Amino acid sequence: MYTLCIVGILGNLIIIAANFRKWKTLNSFLIGDKILSSLATSRSLHICVIYVGYISPLYNTWVSKDLYAMSSILVLTTFLHSTNLWFATVLCVFYCVKITSYSWKFFIFLKTKISTLVPWFLLTSLLMSVLFSLPLGWIFKKIEIQHLTNASSEDFPLTKSVKYEKSRNMLLLFLTGSGPPFLLFVAAITLLLHSLWMHIRRMRSSGSGVECPNLEIHFSAVKSMSLFLVLQTMYLLSKTMYFAGTVEERTYEFWITAILTCSPPTVHSLYIISSNRDLRNSCISMFHVFTCSAQG
């Protein structure tokens, strides 16, 4: 898991650095790069906090013994989790609006205003994440205090009831905060995949042939969006298992859940780098500079 976290952090930092270099060269920040950089920043921070959250209880560090520290980590983890979902949704909505050709009035409005609306979408995502994460930390601290009080009085049935209430309330709040961005993500990606697939069918029926470069680009977009959907679903399911309280520490299920939580953002970031020529070239040049400086 340590290696997976390091790879995920480095992959997202490469995306941020490449977009920063592009911004310095062009003297302007493209909307797509702005969303991607926001998502990469949130993902790299999230992976760091996930690592601390999973590792601290195993080594009995002061963080795992301090109620306020654990509450703060939970709030920060939940905030970054929420920003990941919302930023991924904004990215998918952006691609959906830019690529699709639906004639609905709302889509036409978004197409003409998307450059202006994206910064507001990102700001709204941050505000929604704050509103979602703070109550979760408060519930955790409140119920954990009750749990410690009942444990000291050796009232085991009541302790078990408090633990169940904690898992139920946290899971309910987690699903309430995660549901809207994920449903919007699924809706946007479904519209995008439907539009791409219909375009592919029209190109095939017109006799363009499978070897047409434009058709290959659309096939690549379909595969990319499908992978994005699968990874987001896997990520949300692993986080749901964690908040449901069904996974005990120091078990195989615990580590599987941890790996499944870190894998989707890491895999998707690496896929973005490998499928984007500018990011791929930036990654190669950064690696070359690093190896030269290490040797010299």
Automatic annotation (TrEMBL):
UniProt-recorded Gene Ontology molecular function terms: bitter taste receptor activity; G protein-coupled receptor activity
Localization of this protein: Membrane
Transmembrane regions listed in the UniProt entry: 6-23, 35-55, 67-97, 117-140, 170-194, 215-234, 254-273
GO CC entries: membrane
Keyword annotations from UniProtKB, A to Z: G-protein coupled receptor, Membrane, Receptor, Sensory transduction, Taste, Transducer, Transmembrane, Transmembrane helix
Membrane-topology annotation of the record: Multi-pass membrane protein
Superkingdom of origin: Eukaryota
InterPro entries xrefs: TAS2R (IPR007960)
Main localisation: membrane
Protein family (similarity comment): Belongs to the G-protein coupled receptor T2R family.
PANTHER family according to UniProt: TASTE RECEPTOR TYPE 2, TASTE RECEPTOR TYPE 2 MEMBER 40
Name of the featured protein: Taste receptor type 2
Lineage of producing organism: Eukaryota, Metazoa, Chordata, Craniata, Vertebrata
